[in-house]
Amino acid sequence: ALKGEEIRRPPEVRLEVDLDLYIPEDYIGIREQKVEVYQKLAGATRLEEVEHLRDNIIDRFGRPPEMVSGLFDAAAVRISAAANQIEKMTMASGRVELPFGESRQLSRKDVEAWRRATDKPLEFSFGRVAIITLDLGQVAEYERLAYLRAVLNRV
User: Fold this and answer.
1) By 3-state DSSP, what share of the chain in percent is helix, strand and coil, each rounded to 5?
2) CA angle 20–25–143, rounded 5-degree value
3) 116 to 68, 112, 144, 154: CA distances (angstroms)
4) Backbone phi, then psi, for 115, in 5-degree steps?
5) Which of 13, 41, 121, 148 is the most buried (most CB within 10 A)?
6) Low-confidence ranges of the chain (pLDDT < 50)
7) For residues 49 and 98, is the Cβ–Cβ distance under 8 A?
8) What residues pair up with 135 in beta bridges, in sequence order?
9) Percent of the chain, pLDDT > 70?
10) Dist. CA 117–CA 52, nearest whole Å
11) Is 46 left (phi over 0), alpha (psi -120 to 50) or beta?
């Protein structure tokens, strides 16, 4: 890196989702182009990068199918989760579990911010690490990541 240049690494948030998120052959048929998109998404460190890439893909290939939109939403969730000191996100059957890093304690103000950020059912667990569980069962399957992204951006 150049002297004085900030080194930014992609967030280390692990995402485990029960959705098929991929780029199908009938959307982007050239393997190298698909690999480039996957690499750029994996390396994104700012939400603006994800949106810029999404816009470029739409300009080049048209409106993406939901599994491709989900890839972009997953990349954005990873960045927003890291900004909130969430170490991992697990989504299965509409339930999202968000464990925070050990150094991140949730205050009453944090809990209130989460409550205001969503009208969906929330559970808070305060053990060794704080865990928020969000019930997105009433949200359409491929809209859950976009919904979670919006919640993370409001807290």
Assistant:
1) 45, 15, 35
2) 35
3) 29, 6, 18, 8
4) -60, -40
5) 148
6) 1-5, 7
7) no
8) 95
9) 93
10) 25
11) beta
Tokens 């480039």 found at: 36
3-state secondary structure (DSSP) of residue 126: strand
- 60: Cβ–Cβ under 8 A, 6 or more apart, which residues? none
- CA dihedral 35→37→39→42, nearest 10 degrees, is -140
- Rounded to whole angstroms, the Cα distance separating 153 from 141 reads 20
Q: Is the dihedral of CA 141, 143, 146, 151 positive or negative?
A: negative
Distance CA 43, CA 99 (A): 23
What span, in angstroms and rounded, lies between the C-alpha atoms of 72 and 42?
10
CA 11 – CA 82 distance, rounded (Å): 6
Residue position matching structure tokens 């959307």: 27
Cβ-contact 8, 19 below 8 angstroms: no
d(CA 136, CA 124): 15
- Residue 83 — φ and ψ, nearest 5°? -65, -25
CA distance 23 to 26: 8
